[in-house]
Amino acid sequence: MRSFKQIMTSSIVKKQVMGVTGLLLCGFLITHLAGNCLIYLGPDVFNTYAHTLVTNPLLYPAEAVLALLFLSHIALAARLTIENNKARPVKYYMKSPTGRGATFASSTMPYTGIITLVFLILHLLNFKFGTIYTTQVGGVEMRDIYKTVIEHFKSPLNILWYIFAMLSLGIHVSHGFWSAFQSLGFNHPKYNCTLKCVSKLYALLITVGYSALPIYCYFQGVK
Amino acid sequence: MGNNTQSMNISLKVWRQKDRLDKGHMEDYKMDNVSPDMSFLELIDVLNERLVREGKDPIAFDHDCREGICGMCSLMINGQAHGPEALTTTCQLHMRKFKNGDTIVVEPFRARAFPVLKDLMVDRSAFDEIIAAGGYVNVSTGNPQDANALPISKENADLSMDAAACVGCAACVASCKNASAMLFVSAKVSQLALLPQGAVEADERVQSMVEKMDELGFGNCTNERECEASCPKGIDISNIARMNRDFLKSSISAKK
Amino acid sequence: MTIKKLNGNVPEGAIHEKWEKHKFNMKLVNPANKRKFNVIVVGTGLAGASAAASLAELGYNVQSFCIQDSPRRAHSIAAQGGINAAKNYPNDGDSPWRLFYDTVKGGDYRAREANVYRLAEVANNIIDQCVAQGVPFARDYGGYLSNRSFGGAQVSRTFYARGQTGQQLLLGAYSAMMKEVNKGKIKLYARREMLDLVLVNNKARGIITRNVVTGEIERYAADAVLLCTGGYGNVYFLSTNAMASNCSAAWRAHKRGAYFANPCYTQIHPTCIPVHGDHQSKLTLMSESLRNDGRVWVPKDKDDKRAPNEIPEDDRDYYLERKYPSFGNLVPRDVASRNAKQAVDDGKGVGPTSVAVYLDFRDAIKRDGKDTIAAKYGNLFDMYERITDDDPYQVPMRIYPAVHYTMGGLWVDYNLQSNIPGLFVLGEANFSDHGANRLGASALMQGLADGYFVAPYTLGNYFVTDKPEQEKVTIDSPEFEKAHKESREKLDKLLSINGSKTTDDFHRELGQIMWEYVGMARNEEGLKKGISEIKALREQFWKDLKVTGDNNNINTELEKANRVADFLELGELMARDALERRESCGGHFRDESQTEENEALRDDENFSHVAAWEFQGVDAEPLRHIEELQFENVALTQRSYK
User: Fold this and answer.
1) Chain C partners of B32 at a C-beta cutoff of 8 Å?
2) What is the DSSP string of A136-201?
3) What does CATH list as the number for B124-253?
């Protein structure tokens, strides 16, 4: 019998864990985007939403799970990349893609992943641990996260970086979403096309959905 | 044949490495009057005869059947396993696919699991080790039941044959940026899992073969599909998905 | 130095009882004792891999050697069309007896009846065994095995796996073998070339090999040696054999005393892609199964240079259908080849070189649709297009015969044992089952029959009767010492000549002599000329050869030179055998011996025998021993496929 450790460290299960954590993170991206979209309904709604979220006692376990997902996804990615690099110690003098397999998205996964990681750290610093303003909504004292966001996106540089990062995230998930299914063993000629389309639509939704936010905030800020 | 009679001039950049320990380097050769009907290996044959006449060491490369079935020929040609043509082994690649004046870069297949023995010749015995770990049905020679006793749906027999068409050339490993052997291993796992004869040991087989594959130092699959694209026999990655599925299933359902 | 009458050790009794009774009469090795015996198996093709696997399963310790980097590369892998067995699944009147009859007749009555019957008998088991191993044979919609028909038979008895039957069967045998490698019962030695056979007290007790990676010369001892090293078609330089296919293992055994039987029986396969240039390194076969649907033709008029599709029906000569109405395009290989040669000799050859005939699928595509034809032959059509740049769905294929298989080989008795005790020869390397011509889809059958179902029985009998293990032999014995030294000296000699011509120069020249004088049609004058030319070439070889590099590394030139040295000796023996056999039979056609209709004319009175040659020295005349062939079950007739 193979031990739990043996199975977990096999190349296939490592990939499957990548896939599962990736898909769960994809779920997070959607809910996060939905929450963020409340910004379109004005500061009070947005701030109340944020306040409800941070005062919920379930936040810490939820954040812990999220952190675990991120960390395992990142740590495994790092490990896989190092292992993969070791699997070919002498590199080719010339290596060209066939043009029939790899895509831009698939061949840049580690890079788009790193960009996303950098973005994530900055994102937390800018917002979660960013400047704290307070406000009152309906008599309740709460953080004015709306203001933090609007202030941040007054700078076009910040907007550009945000959109760049979202583009890179979109590219990352356009391969990752489909790839997770393949790693988990889902590949069927009947549904492959649909799955690839869903993968691309999802990536488009993420990129466009998130990129729209800073642009909206910019115009709110200049008003 | 003979449809294209214009002879060509070709420059070659070939990896030369004296033995396993040598560092190796690229060397340039000029070839004049190359017939477009020549196969790529015949081009190297001609070059080698010239080298021998000049008293130089000819280029060592693996090849045997020259019909695209034994899987012995290899070579990275212009950065692609078996060259630019889809569904083609190097021995079936003809010079008419190149242009007069082209420079062609020729390198060995590279992976940690495949050490270079000399020049373009690599040791691919790692594949044999993977097969030995479980790529078979445990049946001894003797008196099995009649071949027609167990009908097999044509669909499964055909899918099994699709996977069984693998020639073990290792183009999948060579073209994968991670030097992963998933396509090779999954082709054998799939071929046998699809047949009732092989299904009996399917769980144990997928576990042992994957374990051996990992142990030998191949990389991990990142679903880039370069393996499928460079496979001269068109083995597709649905086999990898099947293996992923079977591996997961067998990991969860192991009875002891 | 007398001519011997060889005894094939065929068991007594009616033909259908011989093998059954023989199996019972043969002595068995106790299961616990089997592990005390060591067996060397050289070659990992169908015969070698199946034998190694089966022997290891029984409990013997097997050492398996192959020249390629992996046992899976052996040239059996290139067989396309299929494997015969008389399962009679299609209900078309087949039976082992009919398979036996067809094979003896197809071989032009020059095979040993008892061997052929045994082959037909065990063929059904082979299919069962392969299916059990997971060989994905073609199946019909009900899930049952599908059959196709092949040349020389009027029933559908050929099992196939697309156009890759040899590959699938070999991978089946290879996997069976790797299963035993995993258990430690087979020790695998890849990238080894056999240099010599070692005899101790006149028994085969080991081999000398060269590790082609390190150049090291190695010695291996055992209680028996099985040669499964394939045929010698590469003596013609251009053939459908793989580049590394060679005669050296068999030839070195011959030089140590093993008789070489019927070396002149070579099969020229009718459907190969024609030669197109000087740089050509090998010829590619198009499966004979193509003749099921393709129609062979040439223009009626000499030098008709119109494109094939512009030649109207009335100006085409479907010569096989015309001459052989009952078998049509499915006549045996030798007949089809000779007729192609005749068409070309008559000036009706097609294509740029005028040395080809058409194989046309136009009518089949019209009848069955392109999809059906593509499903049957798709991969062959693709291969043809890749090599020739012509699309066979649009224009007819151009084909011409090429050397493909050698029916001759080391002489063996009914037990597949050569005249050297302990030396067994299996598959194409022996001479036994195909007579003067092999039918399509029979080579796979023979290789696997020998390996799975014959040698495992007869080898045990040898161990019990001859008790080789009682004489302790180690690799330090003087016999090994001597063979090692001689092998080393030969290699050193090849390296030291330092002449001006490459190995390929000599090989090409030998090939031309062989094709010209010992090819599809032979005659006394040509053969005599051939012999003297080969002798002269051999002399020149040892004076003017150039081999670069040394013996301490991979040296492919040295490997080639070492093989060509043997081909230069074998070629002469082939010509001698062809010269002495003053009759036509199967693949051996003597111009002097033909019917009025230019068919092969046998001389049963004088040549109904196997010629087994004994080596007497490189430049000495070999001895021609004889094994008389008895035909008790099949009446000798003039073969007719009309």
Assistant:
1) none
2) EETTEEEE-HHHHHHHHTTSHHHHHHHHHHHHHHHHHHHHHHHHHHHHTT---TTTHHHHHHHHHH
3) 1.10.1060.10
